Each structure stands twice: as C-alpha cells, then as structure tokens.
Amino acid sequence: MVTESSALAGSASEPSALAGPAPETTPVRRLLPVIAPALTVGVVCALVLLGIDLLAERLQGVLWETLPDALSVGRYSALWVIVMLTASGLVAGLLIRAVPGHAGPDPATTGLVDPPLPPVAVPGLLLVTVLTLAGGISLGPENPITAVNVALAFWLGRRFLPGTPAELWLPLAAAGTIGALFGTPVAAALILTETLASRAGGGPGALWDRLFGPLAAGAAGALTMTLLARPSFDLSLPAYTHPHWGDLLSSAVVALAGAALGLLAVYAFPYTHRFFVALKHPVLALTAGGLLLGLLGALGGHLTLFKGLDEVKELAADPSGWSAGQFAVMAVVKTAALLIAASCGFRGGRIFPAVFVGVALGLCAHALVPSVPMALAVSCGVLGILLAITRQGWLSLFTAAVLVGDVAVLPVLCVASLPAWLLVTGRPQMQLHEDGTPLR
Fold first, then answer.
1. CA 440, CA 429: separation in Å to the nearest integer?
2. Disulfide check for 327: which of 134, 190, 199, 364 has CB 3.0–4.6 Å away?
3. What angle (nearest 5°) sits at the alpha carbon of residue 129, between those of residues 263 and 125?
4. What is the pTM of this model?
5. From residue 82, how far is each of 62, 263, 296 by CA, in Å?
6. Domains along the chain?
7. Rounded Cα distance, 161 and 351, in Å
C-alpha cells in the first residue's frame, strides 16, 4: 500500500564522488515541512467526508420520507424497502456503467488504503457512494471516501507541490480520512502503525518520525469533523465497573462467536462475487444485488438497512426492546446484507456494517445470559467480527473500546482478542485478487 521509500524523508539526491557525502538532515528539518501539507490534507479530507455525509442524508430524507409519504406508502414497509433497494441497485449499475472510470475498480478487490485512483474515476465514485449511503445499502463510507481523498491529495499535491515525494500524500490522506471518520487521530495512528511497522530499518524514533505527518493530518481531520459535526461513537451503555473471573470466559466466547460469523461471510465472499460476476453486466449484478438486499431488509427490519452507525445507537438506547432471537436475526441478516452488498459491486466500506453486527451479537449474548455485562458483550462482539472482516487488530480493539467509552474493558478485550485472532489469522481475507481468489 505504501512504497519502500520513506514517505517523510524526502528524496535526497545522490552525492558525487568529488563533493563528498551530503550533510545529514536532522529529523526536525525533515519533519517541519510536513506540517502544513498534513494539516491542509486533514482538513480537506474531513470536509469531503462531511459533504458526502450531508448529501447522503438529504437524499436519504427524500427517498425514505418524502417519496413514500407522497405515495402514501409506509416509509419502511416491506414493499418500499424491496422497491428502494432494487432501484438503488439499478441506478448504481447504470452509473457505474456510464461514468468515466466506472467509479473505480471492483470493490471486492480493494482494501481500505490502496494506491491512488486516476482523477477521472473520482466524480463517479462520489456519486455512487452517495447513492449507496442514501439508498439503504449495508455499506459504510470509509473505503470510497478514503480512495477519493487519496486520489485528490496525490493529484493536487503533485500538481501544486511537485518537489514533494509522491509517497507523502497517500498516508496523509488516509490518516486524515480515518481521523475524520472516527473523530480522533489515534485511530489513524494505530491503523497506519500496522502498515508502517512492516518497513525495515530506522533507529530509535524512526516509526514516530514516519507517523509524524499522518498523525498531524489525522488530528486536523478529527478536529475539523468534531468542530463541525460533533460525531460520537459512545453507545452510552451501562458502565463496566471492573473485571470478574467469569468475564474472561464470556468475553472469549462472544469474541469467538463474532469472529466465526465474520469468517462465514469471508469464506462465502468469493462464491457470491463469482455469482454476480457471472451476470456479466454491472446493471444486472447491482439490480439483482439490490433486490436481494431489499428482501433481506424486509426480513430484518429497517434497522438492518444503511451503514449502521445511527442504527446501533437506536439498538443501544433500548436494548430491552428486542429479544435475543430478534438480535440474532438482525446480526445474521446484516452479515448477509454486507456480504451481498460487497460482492455485487456497490461502492462502500465494511467497517460500520460489521460494527452493527457485533453490537447486535453482543446484545444477543447479554439477553441470553444477563450476567454477562452489556458493555463487555457488545465490545467483544464488535472485536470478533472486525478481526474477521478487516484483519486489523488495532482498529478492532480501538473501535470496540470506543463504542463503550470505558477503559476498564480494555484488559479483558485484549485477552478476548487472543483466541479470536488465533481463529482468524492465516485465513482468507474479505478481499479478492483480480482473478477472484481471496487474499491471505
């Protein structure tokens, strides 16, 4: 995802034999010029995310409130859910077929942070992303918005600051977007740590030197989003006071259940993708996918639609309003919806829908065994499903902890992550090679 040359060190010229070795640049002199581009990229990334979110919310209001009210149809009736998701698939397929660049590559072959897209693909990808978010598709904004911001930062950075190394812009844009998405630069630092830690070389402080620019971009993106929109991931669940011996077993069981459910989707992913590819046309594939998503939405209810962030707050606000069986149905339906949406060609991310699955699974565990603390059950369910879907350990731990807003849960989460990681590591990933085979 990031090339071997340092994104922050610049591109020093080769010293000549007569001139002797060039004087070594101090870390401070290397890092100071990064601050302004990093802060700028972070702010722009947050503004792009905020703009797309606002457009999607406006369109969602039209599609799910204004239109059904005008037609005297129930807003979330089974009929309207099936019609809207099928229509979303049809329109998305037509857009992908028609727009320049076809809204980027097949999303089944892409990850969260990938090489920059050509600029011609950016407008189409933004259009399809807005439609995906507004139409009730079980995907989040993180993958396409990160791809758009990386492409814009790379293109504009190389155009207006041609002397900067090309490798600088990808981590800055990725960090700025992730910081804006999660409302904190820590998420960006943790995720990029996993990317940068694989690089060889460097002495004491080398990793933080590499993270200096991305951390600044992540902070700028997070602060911009917080000041303008005040996002919150805290589900306001009852506080987890302190660990008990029994919590070690229950946390591991819930995390393993989440990881197992996620792995079912991961193993099914190549087969569902192959089915939609066999239709040989994006319009047919996305229309068929939209119809299946509509049927799943009618089965699971309106809470299983959309990216899932607002819906998990509704679940957490009244956890006694649903039975364990209903929570289980929602978790399975949302997993199936995520699988289909990611397979048929909709542009979107998988983190937020997976969070919904984990929350529903955790609430199901608490409903079945009330002695399991609700905050612990929810955070472990999210931890397990995210480990399977994203294969990002830091991201999974961070997201699970942020949702319950309680540091007391962290030691138990770390213990629960061990058996869950042993289950998922070395398994296929929820991402495919160009030939349709899964990454490992």
1. 6
2. 364
3. 105
4. 0.76
5. 16, 27, 9
6. 30-229 (1.10.3080.10), 245-424 (1.10.3080.10)
7. 33
